[in-house]
Amino acid sequence: MSTPSGALEMALARARRARRQFECSALPSPPVSHVPVVVIGAGPVGLAAALDLRRHGIACVVLEKHGGVGNGSRAICWAKRSLEICDRLGVAAPMLAKGVTWNVGRVFAGAVAEPLYTFDLAPAEGQKFPAFINLQQYYVEEYLLDALALGDSPVRWQHAASALAPRPDGVEITVSTPLGEYRLHCDYLIAADGSRSTVRELMGLAFEGRTFEDNFLIADVRMRAAFSAERRFYFNAPFNEGRTALMHQQPDDIWRLDFQLGWDIDRQAALQEEQVARRVRALLGPAQKFDYEWVSLYTFQCRRLQKFVHGRVIFAGDAAHLVSPFGARGGNGGVQDVDNLGWKLALVLRGTAGPSLLASYDQERVYAADENLRHSTQSTDFMTPKSPQETAFRDAALALARDHPFARGLVNSGRLSLPSRLRDSALTTPDCDHFKGALQPGDAGLDAPLVAASGARWLLEVLGGDFTCLYFVGELAPAAVRARLPAQVRLVAMSRDFRADACQDPSGVLAARYDATPGTTYLIRPDQHVAARWREFHATPLATALARATGH
Q1: What is the dihedral of CA 183, 187, 190, 196, to 10 degrees?
Q2: Phi and psi (nearest 5°) for 168?
């Protein structure tokens, strides 16, 4: 990229032009209007928030300062939990069809060609989705936009928030566009406008945390290669001057190559075409043909806002927290943010819960962000040791890992994203009965196959996105349980044997995962986290747990 007309720059320009672009949305009329929720940012987090709000019957507008979906692959690794959430939003099917499914990771060290060890993240059998798929962020955005376009699309392109006036009853936004300026009032504003958040800047809010003294080069290249769809991580890579590197496959014969560069570098020189090509050639070999798709430099950051809820302004995704990309905790964490927020905001706007319920979004997602930040920091410290002692520990762990499985738990190439456990949340009712197994109140529900009246289904599909009572049929018939449930709670009854008023668990997998015996009852939140559970159904404790789960 020594000149603007270099091959690398030309390839990037072609990639940018190929992405879907939109004209500036017309100015709304009248010039001052009101909408219940405004979402700032049309990335995956903002678009998912808009879809989730629509699913709950809440009108919103999405303001996006750019004129199209994002450039470059950006986030590429989507975890099973995100796919389960996207399934409720109606976009998991195209994501799964397009994405590259992978479960296996290989860890290499030094000049040895064979992997140090291999790990398999495949989830337990009998779940709808794999552990991870790789899919470029712009595809995810396009699928979300397609789902939003099934109704009146709420996205206003090239509409940027230029001023905010937070008030006790909402937020007034000054919106700037190429066609002029207008004001928009909302009850709540969701700031999902990324790491360089305009909303955060307008409110004078700062991140807290660490910026690590290291630089990394992303080179997404298009090539036909015989590599399998696996995650390949290299420590002490001889082809990268003894630093780390990563290789991942994406759809369309695109591969993510990630190179550690060190801290004291000339960033402009590192992006010169000859420097990028030198590193890519060293990894792929001199004979491999490839074209550039996207190239970028980034610095590790592990930072977040002190709190995510500021009156009527609520932050989500990279606008609220930043982590290193190793571990795929950024985009996946943002999707979990909006999954946690949407149902709570809907209850508040409908008047069935008080504004205090939104404090639980702050509590639960700050906790989740801190968990992601902790894992990301530990990964970064292991991958980029800053002292002789840290280097000695890392090298000793790598030396032992080849022959000793216990040492592999010490090797940290990025602890991959998992759903947050909300066991200490104020909304969670602790167990009062004895259960065994890993699933506990506060955990995300586990999927399992079942048979419904419509045929073979999956549990999480049947649970949907409302408060649900999952009842394993015991002495009480499902009709008797349904008659005693609060109006806002759905019933999903399960039975090992066929009966007309319940779904079937013919394999017993569901009962085993939920440690269920006849009469076992679960209260599941709209985001499919377990709110409470009991060995027998009783209406009063369930109503009490529901009140707790809705912030009363």
Answers
A1: 40
A2: -60, -30
User: Quick one: 306 exposed, middle or buried, by C-beta within 10 A (0-12, 13-18, 19+)?
Assistant: exposed
Distances (CA, A) of 390 to 243, 378, 380, 385: 15, 11, 11, 5
The total of other beta-carbon atoms located within 10 Å of residue 490's CB is: 15
Cα angle at 172 between 171 and 173, to 5 degrees?
115
Cβ pair 282, 189 in contact under 8 A: no
* Distance of alpha carbon 528 from alpha carbon 186, whole angstroms: 28
Sign for the CA dihedral angle at 411, 416, 420, 421 comes to: negative
Where on the phi/psi map is residue 307: left (φ > 0), alpha (ψ -120 to 50), or beta?
beta
- Could you report the per-residue pLDDT of 172-221, keeping only the tens digit for each? 999 999 999 999 999 999 999 998 999 999 999 999 887 776 788 889 99
Question: Domain 17-90+135-208+306-355 maps to which CATH number in 3.40.640.10, 3.10.20.30, 3.50.50.60, 3.30.465.10?
Answer: 3.50.50.60
pLDDT band at 17 (very low <50, low <70, confident <90, very high): very low
pLDDT at 226 over 90: no
User: Cα–Cα distances in Å, from 64 out to 42, 44, 185?
Assistant: 5, 12, 16
Domain boundaries, the chain: 17-90+135-208+306-355, 449-549
Q: Residue 13: pLDDT above 50?
A: no
Q: Report whether 405 contacts 322 (CB < 8 A).
A: no
Q: Are strands 231-237 and 104-109 parallel, antiparallel or unpaired?
A: parallel
| 206, 59 contact by CB (below 8 A) | no
Percent of the chain with pLDDT over 70: 95
The per-residue pLDDT for 18 is 52
Q: Residue 309, by phi and psi: left (phi above 0), alpha (psi -120 to 50) or beta?
A: beta
Q: Please give the model's pTM, rounded to 2 decimal places.
A: 0.92
Residue 433: both structure tokens together: 């009965």
pLDDT tens digits, 357-409: 999 999 999 998 888 888 877 877 887 787 888 889 988 999 898 889 888 88
* Predicted pLDDT of residue 4: 32
* Sign of the CA dihedral running 516, 520, 526, 529: negative
Q: Which residues pair with 303 in a beta bridge?
A: 209, 322
Pick among 3.30.70.1730, 3.40.50.12780, 3.40.30.10, 3.40.50.300: CATH of 449-549: 3.40.30.10
Alpha helices (runs of H) in 433-538, residue ranges in sequence order: 459-463, 478-483, 509-513
